[in-house]
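Input for the complex:
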Amino acid sequence: MSSVTLDVREVHTLIVGALVRSRTSEKSAASVADALVEAELAGQGGHGLRRVAAYAAQAKAGKVDGFATPVVEKPRPALLAVDAANGFAFPALDLAVEPLSECARSQGVALAGFRRSHHCGVAGVVVERYARNGLVALMFANAPGAMAPWGSNRPLFGTNPVAFAAPIAGADPLVVDISLSKVARGKIMAANQKDEAIPPGWAFDADGRPTTDPKAALAGTMAPVGDAKGTALALMVELLAAGLTGANYAYEATSFFDDKGAPPGVGQLIVCIDPTAFGSGTLERFAAMADMVSDAPGARLPGRRRQALRQSLLKEGIPVEQSLIVEIEAIGR
Amino acid sequence: MSSVTLDVREVHTLIVGALVRSRTSEKSAASVADALVEAELAGQGGHGLRRVAAYAAQAKAGKVDGFATPVVEKPRPALLAVDAANGFAFPALDLAVEPLSECARSQGVALAGFRRSHHCGVAGVVVERYARNGLVALMFANAPGAMAPWGSNRPLFGTNPVAFAAPIAGADPLVVDISLSKVARGKIMAANQKDEAIPPGWAFDADGRPTTDPKAALAGTMAPVGDAKGTALALMVELLAAGLTGANYAYEATSFFDDKGAPPGVGQLIVCIDPTAFGSGTLERFAAMADMVSDAPGARLPGRRRQALRQSLLKEGIPVEQSLIVEIEAIGR
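Predicted:
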């Protein structure tokens, strides 16, 4: 596979073009492109350019409304209810940043719930924006059904990311971003394409039995991180990100990958906290813990590898497979 | 070991007596006893009567101030800062229930941070009280150092529980309560007493190598749930429960088990959300997910086993080892 190196602006233009040719407004397309570029800069290609074809197909089919305008309401002083209006998630996530930050500063804590939403991409990127605003953010997102309650074979929960970011005195924010499946579903899809077995412990077949066959795994469920504790957390995320916000649960949501059926209508919840509300010196206290972790031999501070990669890719450009560029350029022509 | 069956009132009296004889006020002792009784009813003896001797010793030594009066301040409209004043955690946790519930109802979301606090017992019991008030609660607590950042051998984090409760239409609250270590440290302490090996995967020795020797494990660190993802969550909990609230980090906190040194000074954070703020019908939506999990063959809804046990123990009484009763009755005499 030959690849070429594109700069951020070129990647952005490529994405905007494909979406605008697929029944999406310039404004929504730019917001989506911002997020997918950040995913590429984070080294998370599975949430980046490789999503463009599926996004464009969904916009073209009307499964995602590319012309949707998200709406923010404030039913209580510390609470924003955001209707993503069955558009892409990113315009709604963008729209909330300033009002939610402002609300957290005045109230001490504030909450934003997103309904009728879509794939939120790299959750760590979303929360890091709040940390760069000087705020602590905690995010829960649900996704179409892929994991079963422990002991069962019904895919009631998504792989449901939990992300957290905190501003650190004198350094980049600390960012935690984990999904609640043991491995990303993309790894199983890749093994399936190459017709290779997957390691034991990654997934279950449709009957809930452990499997190393990627086809059986894709028809079954993903193994949770930490067994029963992981599915307990995934259930919690469903209730927070969807039950509370008025979004669809995992088992009600259609796929993020095809253009079939109703909009996925998943949800997200962001808790935003002003760390100065508890007193001064909090960012220095965060720095103290970050330093202890960084200084522990063998340990890595979450988020740092991604931030270093971002700096490097901003300078050197983003390597993209030639075939992927051709595919994206052909969309909607 | 012979055991007798005591009713809730007898267990409560036993605890109050031992604490009051150990430099603790009647009021604080009653609050602690309420919590330890609930732990026994939850089948979590490790957070129940077996803590009384250590609690009493700490109160007697002044490591815990048995006469402390917790103080609640409200620096922002949606934020409570609670100073547990180096007393037991429970009087502070009790004090917050009504003002935090009230604040969540008016603001939509509210936050309580606890500093200069102590062992919070069964976190699921704490959050369930909010759910019985009709609110969603999410709690993070830190604890003395027991887990290392993934790849390192430094016990920078506690086993740090995460607990969540939501009210369910027509049923008891749904309660998730997990610690971020793979198994409870008490299991390793029990194996050590019996001089038995522990299963592989539970713990690391002081050099960070996997061990099956319980002595080496107690001198080392606990394995996190889900490897690197578990320690990322434990770090997040340290920042939320301690960094934010002004409490001590795990690596700064003294033991909950002995009477040596300064007060542990750990922290807790509770996020409390009014589920009706996003619209009506939320409790029915929570019920829909709870039913899907309950109906999935092989799955269990988190919290249900504990709630059933509580009902049964309330009726039949709590079995307590005779030797433990003798030990507690002798405290302070």
